[in-house]
Amino acid sequence: MKLALRWQALLIGFLLGTSGAFAADNPIPSNHAVQLAQRPGHAGIASANALATEAGFEVLAKGGNAFDAAVAVASTLSIVEPESSGIGGGFMATMHIAASNRDVFVDAREMAPAAVDAKDYLNPDGTPNRDTSLKGPLSAGIPGEPAGLVWIAKHYGKLPLSASLAPAIRTARDGFKPDSRLLGSIQEEQKNLMRWPASAAKYLPDGKVPAAGDIWRDPDQAHTLELLAQYGDSGFYSGETAQKLVDAVNSAGGHWTLKDLASYRAKERTPIVVDYRGYKIITAPPPSSGGVAIAQILNILSGFDLSQMDKAHRVHLEIEAMRRAFRDHNDYLGDPDFVKMPLDMLLSPYYADGLRQSILPDKATPSSMLAPSSGQDPGMHTTHFSIIDADGNMVAITSTVNYVLGSTFVAQGTGVLLNDEMDDFALVPNKPNVYGLLGSKANAPEPGKRMLSSMSPSIVIGPDRTAVIGSPGGSTIITQVLEGILAFVDGGDAHQVAAHKRFHHQFMPDVVMVEPGVFDAATTDALTRMGYTFKDREPWGFMNVVIWDRRSNKLDAASDPRRADGLGKVQ
Ligand code: DON
């Protein structure tokens, strides 16, 4: 039934072609040929923590480029923002290499160990076991971040890892004052941290949450980073660190082998590229669902002139496009090395034409008319940073340990806080994960497979301006980035794009999640009459954006005003 509906939509698209009533009418010529020969001559970095942004600038000042700065920012975040990302997790990077005018995507996503067993994540009654999928060693995938950093430094950086990792190592050795978000995360996860001795020793010194203003050091992680700086991949994926990781995981009930670690590789993949009204959007391919969903939504929306619509109708069309893209996410997407995905269909303008035809002009389509359901609230841990350097190199990286403080499991002697990314698999078919996302066989756990992500680091090249953009937010990453792109297309500067109020629909649950104040009363009334229901939700991500106005050749960087600790800076 689901599939039949989808093919019907596709067929209508084919019949109408691009000249149908709602077909794409794009007055602005394609921008895909834009050559970025221009250089900004100065740099912009926006990240979730001021120390990380400054680490990036420090490495630029030493002669590094945006890629070296990215290694510095990511590794510093591993020390100062461990609740969101770190070397025990993974990331996805969308990058533009100025010298060769090339766009690349680096997949440093975690993977399941060879001994993965779906039964470990089930209660005896067959319901999902949220404890094993979100806490402790079973919840952790094999980390991808160290391999990703080594890959970026080796292939695109100008400096040795010893230089780009230096600020993180120094911060870990000399110490820093944890910000209120980190202290709050430790407070929130105190009970879980106490379950694992190395976690308690690291995050609860003297058995309690550190006080605001305390200086905090991370010598074990400094040592692990030094081995990475000295030996590259083998400094983490074999030798001392690998042995300590395997020993710690297995003695606490996990099933990792040295071979799992030695076989991990960062992978370069072709990014998803979509053209929306003359803007070229370069974004994340599977194993993220983000780029496919953003492309599908923009393809649907490109058949409407949103700028001519009242707010309620514009929002209505955006929600309906989101609903349809998330339905496909649930069914089709997974690790491209394991699943064949109908990407040609999902990304085709004809398919989008068909989906557009199924949207009623003034009425919500109940998701139940399209397929089955469920849901939960997303959190806000994971991090995104954006960089443009003086030569016009660009990096968008979203990095994560998944939920707050990941698995809360620190591997003894390494300082490495492991991720809890296994929950991003569809561990039980059609039962929601912690972000309410459903999944099918395409995203079922398998040995060596990468779990589907929503991370959507993106670069948007318009006729006159370029943006590097992304955000954390679980499943809402996709819609936050989409809305950020639309705000940029509408002319927003970096602050306006980051501050833009947000809403989200993910097919199931069939409700529009809203940031308080996103719609005025008249818009809410009009949308209610169309059949929408709303749910207030907090928090809403942590967007970090850098924009390059190529007419004035000025950069503009902003960190989400919803949070106090980020820093967007141009220099
Ligand atoms: O890869 C993903 O989609 C998730 N692990 C991201 C988690 C996230 O954004 C958490 N909170 N904001």
UniProtKB/TrEMBL annotation:
Under which EC number(s) is this enzyme classified?
2.3.2.2, 3.4.19.13
The UniProt keywords, alphabetically, are: Acyltransferase, Glutathione biosynthesis, Hydrolase, Signal, Transferase, Zymogen
**Pfam families (alphabetical):** G_glu_transpept
The protein's matches in InterPro entries, at most eight in alphabetical order, are given as:
GGT_bact, GGT_lsub, GGT_peptidase, GGT_ssub_C, Ntn_hydrolases_N
Does this UniProt record's set of keywords contain Transferase? yes
Q: Please cite one Gene Ontology biological process associated with this protein.
A: glutathione biosynthetic process
Q: Name one GO molecular function term.
A: leukotriene C4 gamma-glutamyl transferase activity
Q: Which residues form the active site?
A: 382 (nucleophile)
Q: Which family does it belong to?
A: Belongs to the gamma-glutamyltransferase family.
Assembly behavior: This enzyme consists of two polypeptide chains, which are synthesized in precursor form from a single polypeptide.
This protein is called what? Glutathione hydrolase proenzyme
Q: Which organism is it from?
A: Dyella psychrodurans
Q: Corresponding gene?
A: ggt
